[in-house]
Design brief:
The complex is a heterodimer of chains A (148) and B (168). Chain A is an all-alpha fold and 148 residues long. Helices cover 82% and strands 0% of the residues of chain A. Chain A has one domain (28-136). Chain A has helices spanning 3-27, 31-50, 56-70, 74-135. A five-stranded mixed sheet of chain B has the order 2-8-7-4-5, with no helix packed on it. A three-stranded antiparallel sheet of chain B has the order 1-3-6, with no helix packed on it. Chain B has one helix spanning 6-28, and strands spanning 36-42, 54-56, 60-70, 75-84, 100-108, 113-121, 132-143, 148-163. The longest helix of chain B is centred in the N-terminal third of the chain and has 23 residues, at 6-28. Chain B has a single domain, classed as Immunoglobulin-like, CATH 2.60.40. Classes of the chains: A mainly alpha (148), B mainly beta (168). The A-B interface holds A 35, 38-39, 42-43, 45-46, 49-50, 55-56, 59-60, 62-63, 66-67, 70, 106, 109-110, 113-114, 116-117, 120-121, 124-125, 128-129, 132 and B 3-4, 9, 12-13, 16-17, 20-21, 23-24, 27-28, 73-76, 104-110, 112, 114, 142, 144.
Chain lengths: 148, 168
């Protein structure tokens, strides 16, 4: 090997060493990346809210992460967002089923309420008659023509 | 023999029908008919009333900002703090032209509110000494459809007199 080859080899080794140490620094997200990630989670939370899922706790956690990111505490913010994303993914899998159940329950409620007038129309006269006769069941018919 | 008077029965049926339809409407109506966001300015103790009349250039001022979400969904809000002239306050369609000196983002669920205490910088501009200035706080909201921050048309402002820092 000549001198030029040695220099080239040293440069390559140095570059490899630099490249092997920089991924950790490069993978650490910036404040902007955390905020962007929070906004992406927000979209998913809005979808879950539209499916009548309770997301208040998750929204509070996202807010905590955003506050920490704005104060420069990126690592804690990232951990919180990891946890929130896991919970959001879990909720998303059952969201459509829960929404269908919610719609079915609401429909049943409305059907029950709207059936009350029909039940009243057909049932109330019969109930009234039943009560009327029951209240008077011990009554006796007397002949008033004898004058007694 | 007609034991139940027809007119009484008709009136009772009418009442039941109206009550039933009204109740059904309450069940199916959306919970938010008029979504809105709100911003409020509070003093350094996070109460209404004791607002500063003057600010010192180059110093910080402490104020509280109240934000409330009634949009029917979780929202991300950004409060932009601007230091400008009384002629440059925002409108309900356009924000102030001044550059923001500080921004704070919060994420709120529906029907949630928050009060944040902020240390706000007063820019060092000796030319402003003795003049009137306005502290403007604009409420921006993240539009998840457009993927950008949009001005909500809500803002609060505080008119103050700018004073110099007394030299010892």
């Amino acid at each position: 090997m000549n001198k030029t080859s040695h220099v080239s080899l040293i440069i390559i080794v140095a570059l490899v060493l630099i490249a092997s140490t920089t991924p950790n620094a490069a993978s650490a997200p910036s404040r902007e990346e955390i905020l962007e990630r929070s906004l992406n989670i927000l979209k998913r939370l809005q979808y879950l809210e539209s499916r009548h899922e309770n997301v208040t706790q998750l929204v509070n956690q996202v807010n905590t992460a955003v506050q920490l990111a704005q104060k420069g505490n990126i690592s804690t913010a990232e951990k919180i967002l990891d946890n929130v994303e896991a919970n959001v993914s879990r909720l998303e899998t059952g969201a459509e089923t829960h929404y269908k159940i919610y719609i079915a329950v609401k429909t049943a409620e409305v059907a029950t309420v709207l059936s009350i007038p029909v039940l009243f129309y057909y049932g109330f006269p019969r109930l009234y008659l039943y009560i009327w006769f029951r209240v008077r069941r011990r009554w006796q018919v007397k002949d008033g023509s004898t004058g007694r | 023999m007609d034991l139940l008077d027809d007119e009484v029965f008709a009136v009772l049926t009418a009442i039941i029908v109206v009550a039933s339809v009204f109740t059904a409407a309450l069940i199916v109506k959306p919970s938010h008919t008029e979504p809105f966001s709100a911003i409020g300015l509070l003093d350094q103790n996070c109460k209404i009333g004791d607002y500063p009349d003057f600010v010192l250039i180059g110093e910080n001022i402490t104020l509280c900002i109240y934000i409330s979400n009634h949009e029917g969904a979780p929202q991300a809000y950004m409060v932009k703090y601007k230091f400008t002239t009384p002629q440059d306050i925002p409108t309900n369609t356009t924000p102030s032209r001044a550059n923001p000196l500080a921004e704070r983002i919060v994420v709120l669920d529906d029907k949630q509110d928050i009060t944040i205490k902020e240390e706000l910088p007063i820019p060092y501009n000796p030319g402003m000494i003795g003049r009137n200035a306005t502290l403007v706080f604009e409420l921006w909201k993240f539009d998840t459809v457009k993927d950008e921050w949009v001005y909500t048309g809500r803002w609060v402002h505080l008119h103050v007199k700018v004073l110099g820092v007394p030299r010892s």
